Amino acid sequence: MSLVYETEITVTEEHIDGNNHVNNVQYVHWVAMVAAAHWDLLKSGTEYEEDIWMLFDHHIRYKKQVYLDDILTVKTYPEVPEGIRQPRKVEFYCKGELVVESRTLWILMEKHTQKIRRLGNDWLTGLSS
């Protein structure tokens, strides 16, 4: 299983704001949506299958505007863990050009106890095999 997940999004009217481009809040929604979709593919067979990722910190940089009917290629991948925090990059491309990039920090919570799960620095290697 690859640690890079890729999907496409076609920009529709519901994504457009009063300035006739994709609303910035929409990207935040897509970041969470794509991260969840990627984790759904990766978690099967891990000891973390029932656990829940909680967003801890979010940074996003807008480089270019995107408009109605544009097709976005979205790539996401986890980076090396930082203690209890798991960084994740999400990149949005339009016509091959990076238009938005995001870096988020997530914390894994045990579903039933709501306690933080500490992940080893090498835990990602088990996901990619």
What structural keywords apply?
5 strands, 19% helix, Thiol Ester Dehydrase, Chain A, 5-stranded antiparallel β-sheet, alpha+beta, 129 residues
Summarize the SSE layout with pairings.
Elements: E1 5-10, H1 24-42, E2 52-62, E3 71-78, E4 85-94, E5 97-109, H2 123-127
Antiparallel strand pairs: 1-3, 2-5, 3-4, 4-5
Order of helical and strand elements: EHEEEEH
The CATH homologous superfamily is termed Hotdog Thioesterase
Could you name the ranges where pLDDT drops below 50 across 5 or more consecutive residues? none
User: Quick check: average pLDDT?
Assistant: 92
The CATH architecture name reads: Roll
**Main sheet: strands, sense, barrel:** 5 strands, antiparallel
Q: Taking Cα atoms only, what radius of gyration do you get, to the nearest Å?
A: 16 Å
Can you offer a commentary on this structure?
With about 130 residues, the protein is of the alpha+beta class. The chain has a single domain (about 5-120), classed as Hotdog Thioesterase (Thiol Ester Dehydrase, Chain A, Roll), CATH 3.10.129. It is about 20% helix and about 35% strand. A five-stranded antiparallel sheet has the order 1-3-4-5-2, with helices on one face. The model has no long low-confidence stretch (mean pLDDT about 90).
